[in-house]
TrEMBL record, chain B:
Keyword Heme part of the UniProt annotation: yes
Keywords assigned by UniProt, alphabetized: Heme, Iron, Metal-binding, Monooxygenase, Oxidoreductase
UniProt protein name: Cytochrome P450
InterPro entries: Cyt_P450, Cyt_P450_B, Cyt_P450_CS, Cyt_P450_sf
Organism from which the protein derives: Lentzea indica
Coiled coil: none
Family statement drawn from the similarity comment of this UniProt entry: Belongs to the cytochrome P450 family.
Pfam family, one: p450
Amino acid sequence: MPGSVTVRIDQTGCIGSGQCVLAAPDVFDQSDDDGLGIVLIPEPSADLLPGVRDAVERCPAQVVSLEE
Amino acid sequence: MTEAAVCPVMHERDHPLQPPVGFAEAVSDGPVKMLWPNGVEAWVVSSYAGVRQVLSDPRFSTRKGGHPEMRTDEGEPVVDADQPGNINGIDGEAHMRLRRPLARGFMVKRMNELRPRIQQIVDEHLDVMEAKGAPADLVGSLCLPLPSLVIAELLGVPPEHQELFQATAREMFGKNGSKDEYIAHATKLGEVLSPIVAEKKAAGTNDDMIGLMANDTDFSMQELIFLCIGLLAAGHETTSNFLGLFTLHLFEQPDQLEILRRDPSRADVIVEELMRYTVGQLGGVGITRRATEDVEVDGVLIKAGDWVSVSLLANLDEELCPRAEELDLERDAVSHLGFGFGPHQCLGANLARAELQIGLRSLFTRFPNLRPAVQVTEMSYRNDMITYGAAAIPVVW
Ligand code: HEM
Ligand code: SF4
């Protein structure tokens, strides 16, 4: 159900590692300006959630969050 | 309370690809205090959750200075605690100031753009290896030159200075590196780098790392030179060792090698699993922090001022994945700690991944019958650096 989950990155702690991009390339990218993580799809569909959960786990700065 | 056990910094191993004898048993029950040969004590943390905690909790500082390092003698650390540009030795905002601008140079996108060039370098080296004929030494033919050439190009430094990078890295990452030798090499490297930096500054270009640092950051010359030295050093020793160790593990486990041979397009997932397993099997203790406050880790109170060394045996913890002690190239990538965790997680991880994926895939596609010319246990291994690997890997095909 669109709208039932929200993905966020708190950029203040982000180190631009790109782990989120590796985990869920459709949902995350890195900004061309500074390399920091950005969310492309803030309310991803259910099929994208496993990748998002993986990104939450892998983010070395622990700044990716998924609110369900 | 309890006597500190002696830390097996010396990497005494029964089998070259397995953890130091008795080490896993000694540390498996939670943080234990171990005595380094230079007389310093440090807690060793080896659980998956504990290692993640130590590496990401800001109450643990990465500032070095008289820390246990990996020294087995009483010598002083090679790099000063206050060395400007020492990205791995500073915390918080000061670390972010150095780390953030570099991250842009190592973005996933940028590393993907490099792949065709990495492939070209790999192909050229495998061509030469084939033309010279078997037996060949894999370390000299591919493992060492590949990361060395790639990092030099990424920085924008002419490759003819390779010898100098390697000599500097040996002292910097050598267990008992000599400070005098290190300073001598680093000074020479500084002389090579200074005019390159000046040239990039004048041209105003940011298409390689030195250009990016010279023109898009507020780094001082001293910081910039030290960062370059660090990148050149970190950029080749580790990747080279791991490409070799991955190959050796595959030689030792032919059923797993078969999985790679069957579907080389899965090289990305396969490299993650090899990374998890290989780092776990090395097990050693190389990443050090110091508590700035009392902190509880895995039920043990670590006091302010105590040193903590994390062991990446954590990669073999069942909490990370089932059957964690087994190499299983069919499993999906898991959140392993091979590149560390927290704000200091490896800056070059995405570069190393690209090199390892392309290197490994091409090696076994090109030489499907590649095999060791002598037993893996008979090869000689290097123990003199904080990174461990085979000195030479004689192969036939
Ligand atoms: C297989 C290859 C590699 C492995 C296993 C590896 C492993 C690691 C680990 C575990 C750390 C964390 C250290 C800590 O927490 O104190 C680290 C940090 C670092 N690595 Fe790597 N590395 C590899 C390749 C590279 C490459 C290719 C580069 C450079 C281009 C590089 C540059 C760095 C730098 C600069 C840091 C320090 C980052 C910081 O403190 O913020 N590494 N590496
Ligand atoms: S994984 Fe975390 S630290 Fe890395 S780019 Fe994504 S949000 Fe930033």
